[in-house]
Each structure stands twice: as C-alpha cells, then as structure tokens.
Design brief:
The protein has 124 residues and is an all-beta fold. 0% of the residues lie in helices and 50% in strands. The protein has no helices and eleven strands. Strands 2, 4, 5, 6, 9, 10 and 11 form a seven-stranded mixed β-sheet that branches. Strands 1-3-8-7 form a four-stranded antiparallel β-sheet, with no helix packed on it. The radius of gyration is 14 Å and the shape is globular.
C-alpha cells in the first residue's frame, strides 16, 4: 500500500493563497486517479478536485473552480493543490487520497489510501 502525507496547511486571511502537497511513498501499483477532499466541522467530507494520473485531466467542484488548481509531479510522487482567493468557507481539514481499482473517481468510497490531513484556516 501507499502512504500519503499532506503538508502546507496553515492560517491565512481571506484572499490569501496556500499550496498543499501530498507526498506518496511505499510500494503500490500506479493509481488511476488522485484527489483532494476536505471536511469542515459539522459538515460531511467532500471532494474538492481530482486528477487522472495517466492523462493529467482534472475535475473540480464548482465551489473551488477557478480558484484552486490540482496538479501532479509523477517523478517526485507528489500531488499538489494550489489554493488562491481563499474564503472563510474554505476552512477545513484537507486530505489527499488515491484510487487504484475500477469505479468512479467522483466517489469517495472508491479511494483506497488516505493521508492524515492538513488543516487550512481562513480568517476574515
């Protein structure tokens, strides 16, 4: 299995930017897609964006489209999330996850391996 470790979270003011990283290590087959999820207190965990590792095609939730960018560096086994124009409602614990088997990359239940999360706090 693969181990995923997020980093780059922190506290910023509204309108600021952060870049999250997810470093992958350990033995595994190549992932089909990787994704960023987030969970705010009192809310369900939601998918922010995912990327198809083979093609590099990306999909974004409407709440972050135009502000966030998901990308990957396969040589470094690292996933990124560039977060611009941050809003207080973006405050959440952010997780990266990897999917390996068949199924939809849109579904949370399809992802096998998860990181421990990194906290993002946006103040007004």
């Amino acid at each position: 299995q693969v181990k995923l470790v997020e980093s780059g979270g922190g506290s910023v003011q509204a309108g600021g930017s952060l870049r999250l990283s997810c470093a992958a290590s350990g033995y595994t087959v190549s992932s089909v897609c990787m994704a960023w999820f987030r969970r705010a207190p009192g809310n369900e965990r939601e998918r922010v964006a995912h990327i198809y590792t083979g093609s590099g095609n990306t999909v974004y939730d409407v709440s972050v489209k135009g502000r966030f960018t998901i990308s990957q560096d396969n040589d470094k086994n690292t996933l990124y999330l560039q977060m611009n124009s941050l809003k207080p409602e973006d405050t959440a614990m952010y997780y990266c996850a990897a999917k390996f088997d068949g199924g939809s990359c849109f579904r949370e239940t399809e992802y096998r391996d998860w990181g421990q999360g990194t906290q993002v706090t946006v103040s007004s």
